[in-house]
Structure formats: C-alpha cells, structure tokens
Amino acid sequence: MGKGKSKSNGRKRGARRKNLSTFDISRLLGVDPGSVANWIDAGMLKAHRTPGGHRRVTIEDLIRFLRHHKIPTPPGLEQSWACLVVIDHAPDYFEELLKIALERHPECEVFKPSDAFQAGVIVVRYKPDIILLDLQMPGMDAFEACRTIKSYEQISDAVVLAVADGCSQEDKRKILQCGAEACLSKPINPSQLVELMESALIRRGS
C-alpha cells in the first residue's frame, strides 16, 4: 500500500455549499463590496440574483474565480479532503493527479492499495471521501464493489469515479447505475480530474 500524505484525524465529510452575498465575499477577501459587484457585472465572477434582486455567488464559482485570477483562497473556503483511495491496477499512472491534488489539498490522505483485498480493508477502515475505481482491477468485480460501497451506510456518500483503459457506453451505463459519479477513459487529464473531484464533493455536500 502506498500512502500519500496524512494530517489530523479530524475530518470534514463534504463541503457545506451555500450562496454568498457581495458583502460575504468582501469580508472574506478584504475588498470593497463595490469591487465584488463590479466583478459580477463585468462577467468575471459568475452570480445569480435572488427574487429580491440581490446578487448571490456559490462557493464553487468563487473558488474558480480566485484560482483563475491567482488570488489566495481564504482559509476554510476550500473543500477539505480527508481521504482518497486509488483502486487501480496501475496506481502510479495517477502520480501527476495526486501531485496536483496534494498541492491544492495538503490535508488529503492518499492510499494506493496493491490488490482488491487490501482495497476493501482500506475503504472500510478509512471511509474515504473519494474513490478512484478501476473497472479492470484484477480480482475485483468493480460493479459489485461500487454497489457495495453505496449500500454501506458509513461510506455511501463517498464519491466514486470509475476509470478504465476504455470505458464503453455499456460499462458507463452499468457503473453509473451502481452509484458512480462518472466513468472516465484513459488517458485522463490530471487537472480536469481534480476539478471533477472537487465539483463532485461540493455537490455531495450541498
């Protein structure tokens, strides 16, 4: 088993998504509310309006805006990852992904089990927030594994992302029915995969 990075045992299970007002954002970033309103009106920061006409921005859209403009993200705003398990017959394939994930989420704990049995032990013990599940993992029926994960109350809210050397439409249909968030074919863009993970976790906690 390869273990990436470990921090405290205190874990946050998913982001608490909410809408932020221009005043919320101004306090978070230490800027004038008028500047936030200008960003929105210029189309730089995605927002919507309430029935009363007030601007509102989701945490997800604010984080995207901050990253795009290379503005430091305030502590506590980012989605906090606790545990990521890579169940894949070639876990080293994801090294670039893990590097990006740990740069963005240094508190993340990563496990790369060496076989199907070890994967099951780790998932039950550590109750991961994200599981990368190889559809061709030797010694494992990935579809049954996904169904089991989603039926086990303590880990059912884990985000399962299926990966395969070639994910057919039938495999995609089957694994999504089993509860996976997506089925991705290799080669996978590491940055895009991290963004997919983040978005999935935010939706999970909404």
Structure notes:
With 206 residues, the chain is an alpha/beta fold. The protein folds into two domains: 2-8 and 79-204, Response regulator (Rossmann fold, 3-Layer(aba) Sandwich), CATH 3.40.50.2300; 19-68, Multidrug-efflux Transporter Regulator, Chain: A, Domain 2 (Orthogonal Bundle). The chain has helices at 22-29, 33-41, 59-68, 95-104, 116-126, 142-151, 169-177, 190-204, and strands at residues 2-3, 19-20, 48-49, 55-58, 83-87, 109-112, 130-134, 159-164, 182-185. The strands form two sheets. A six-stranded mixed β-sheet has the order 1-6-5-7-8-9. Strands 2-4-3 form a three-stranded antiparallel β-sheet. A hairpin with a 5-residue loop joins strand 3 (48-49) and strand 4 (55-58). Helix 1 crosses helix 2 (33-41) and helix 4 crosses helix 8. The longest helix has 15 residues, at 190-204. The chain is elongated and about 60 Å long. The model is unreliable at 1-17 (pLDDT under 50).
Q: In summary, what is this structure?
A:
The chain is of the alpha/beta class.
Structural class: alpha/beta
- What's the tally of helices? 8
- Residue share in helices? 25-40%
Number of strands: 9
Second rung of CATH, namely the architecture of the largest domain: 3-Layer(aba) Sandwich
Q: What gyration radius follows from the Cα positions, in whole Å?
A: 19 Å
Strand content: 15-25%
Name the CATH class of the largest domain.
Answer: Alpha Beta
The secondary-structure element order is: EEHHEEHEHEHEHEHEH
CATH topology of the largest domain: Rossmann fold
Global shape: elongated
Tell me the span between the first and last alpha carbons: 32 Å
- What is the CATH homologous superfamily assignment of the largest domain? Response regulator
Overall number of structural domains: 2
Strand order of the largest sheet: 1-6-5-7-8-9
The profile of the biggest β sheet is: 6 strands, mixed
> Which segments are poorly predicted (pLDDT under 50) over 5 or more consecutive residues?
1-17
